[in-house]
Design brief:
The structure is a homodimer.
Chain A lengths: L17 H19 L5 H13 L5 H10 L6 H13 L3 E4 L4 E4 L9 E6 L5 E5 L1 H12 L4 E12 L1 H6 L1
Parallel strand pairs in A: 3-5
Antiparallel strand pairs in A: 1-2, 3-4
Helix pairs in contact in A: 1-2, 2-4, 3-4
Chain A binds a DNA duplex (30 and 30 nucleotides) through helix 4.
DNA sequence: CAAGAGATGTAATATCGCAACATATGGACT
DNA sequence: AGTCCATATGTTGCGATATTACATCTCTTG
């Protein structure tokens, strides 16, 4: 199984300015790294860039192929380390259900995200999830559990595939 | 990495009647299978029983070891098929973050569940998540996405580990 | 410049999960 | 009963995913 969706699968269902995603988000990541003292090194930066350009969920090994083709290391840890860094910094998300990663659309912000995965076309959208997170915090609080990080992934039908069916 | 938590990791943080979990839940699963025309065969039944007895998240290969030791098949599909059946029927849940499975505490009911995973002791609790689910449905609806199944997994600190720290 | 921390690269291997196929089991129907 | 069919079980073998361990390099700091 290849973790990444079909090549035509768009990340978000709604239209948006793609150049904005790549340029602006990259700039923000750079600023945030600087501010935090984190090092956005060439591999890491390029990894984020590829994630942003591809604009869909990518498996670690897909990323590794891309990186290797550009002269970076050829072994799995190269991709995993770069991706882990991006996730730690909040520049990317890991989607467990797909064993894949996506760039974060709004790094540095609020940062409770939910992923909506279309089971028909594999497209993945990142939805704001402040309310979902609040409900989860409340559910945890009831039994004394402190929620630190949450993974929220929904499987269903995107607008396009829904009307098609 | 072994997917299963430490042996001492309890499934739920709150106390509860363990015999109840095993006996009653198993009986319910049996009734539900009968009603639905699903076949709770020996491997499947035993798999659920082991899940209930162990009372924590178990990896598929851990389950395979148990099953093989009891005379069932020794190959991975044996465990995966039984576990998949249980998940399909709503008798168990898959926890993606841990590559593991747990028995469902209240099969047949409402059935929107969230998992609270303690990052210190690896204990896993299943929390009712009707509200979380409602918020997620709403977030999806805003962009026309229909949520069918949701995976909600929170990482944090359980009451015990929290006070210990 | 020397020392230490962190980043990168590689090899080897562990772990997870599935497709494909053969065989057995249990009903439904003559 | 006997035949047929759907479903379940068991096996081989493989592919995909992920990590550990270790060597090397590169910054940064004193």
């Amino acid at each position: 199984m290849t973790a990444s969706p079909t090549p035509t699968a768009a990340l978000a269902f709604a239209h948006h300015d793609h150049a904005h995603c790549v340029g602006e988000v990259l700039a923000r990541a750079e600023a945030a790294s600087l501010a935090r003292g984190a090092r956005l090194t060439p591999v890491r930066r390029r990894t984020l860039e590829i994630l942003l350009e591809s604009h869909r969920a990518m498996g670690a090994y897909d990323m590794l192929d891309r990186l290797a083709a550009e002269g970076f290391g050829k072994q799995p840890p190269v991709a995993y380390r770069a991706l882990d860094f991006l996730v730690e910094q909040g520049f990317a998300h890991r989607i467990n259900r797909l064993n894949a990663f996506t760039a974060c659309i709004h790094p540095g912000e609020d940062h409770a995200a939910a992923f909506l995965i279309c089971r028909a076309c594999n497209a993945v959208a990142e939805a704001p999830a402040a309310r979902v997170r609040a409900a989860l915090d409340a559910a945890g609080a009831e039994i004394g559990f402190t929620v630190e990080r949450a993974t929220v992934e929904a499987l269903g039908l995107c607008p396009t595939c829904r009307t098609a069916a």
